[in-house]
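dumping these here so i dont lose them again. two proteins, back to back, each one seq then structure tokens. dont judge the mess
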Amino acid sequence: MHSSPLPPKRPARPPRRRRGFTILEVTIATFVMAFGISTSTYTVMSGFKTLDVARNITLSSQILQSEMERLRLMDWGDIAALSGTNEVDLNAVFTTDAHLAAQFTLTRTVSDVAGKVGEMKEILLVVSWTTVDGRPLTRQFKTFYAKDGLYDYYYTLARS
């Protein structure tokens, strides 16, 4: 009789272990994720604040320009009648958005130029507002208004 050899026995495998994450690894991963999310949230909020400031600087510049153009259209008699510091009604500037008119304050200061009383006025415009995080900001513009125009002033009165 011919006997066939039995196949060799394989060595017994150790039982398969299921490895998972330890509590320490999960805790560290949680802290890393929380740090990443909070940092990105802070960055987005900072970006929105910066965008708000930039938008309001642009609006304040437009308010100043609008008021300067309005003053340039006035004749000397109307400019000479202006004096002291007055708050300008911005509802006339923002006719369609009362919220914007309430957000900004425009102050106009008109004074005589020393040595040129009755001939020239100094006009200072100051726009102020508060940012979304409560910081007060201002922009200002100063100009001079001469009785017969600056061109005429420089080429006639200033030379005499």
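---- next one ----
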Amino acid sequence: MGDPAVAAIPVRECGEPLVDVRTEAPGLLVAAAREDARGAFARLRAGVLRRLLAAQEALPDGLRLQLVEGYRPPELQRRYFEEYADDLRAAHPGWEAGRIHRAASRYVSPPGIAPHSAGGAVDVTLVTAQGVEVDMGTPVNASPEESDGACYTAAPGLTPAARANRRVLNAALHSAGLVNYPTEWWHWSYGDRYWALATGADHALYGPREGDEE
């Protein structure tokens, strides 16, 4: 995500609103309450939500999507990035600043280009019809270090069940027009700079939004 090619993608903000998944699409499961009094995590751009609902329709019987996190206010994105960079500095005191930034960017998007802060990214997993999580190989938000790389979408060494479940998730979301960030099997986006680079679009549709914007 820290590739200069991502930051170089221009943004032509389309003005699409952020909507609350819990009220706009009650048929889509949302993970248990987070430490987010404003409920920002349950908001997405309207176009992303439409595509998530289409992806859910494409799933086999007995499986549903569960939204874990959508919109992330820019100040929270900065905090996450800085905290992870601090962890890397502590673990690798000999690394220079540029290497820390590149390594941190594998897992947490740099604040200026973060798809979550544009409302274009969503972290999702699969659950059964009863809401029980299925085997995806790692928990959502497992870092490369703590998962020994199993968080990568195409990681080797997964159980057959986890590999099959990732294939199901990938097929449904790809068919709806979202793209995956390959360091994180759970991270999918539409309309942001990374999506534009991955699909060959000449510009992004969504730029960063402040939490009080409508």
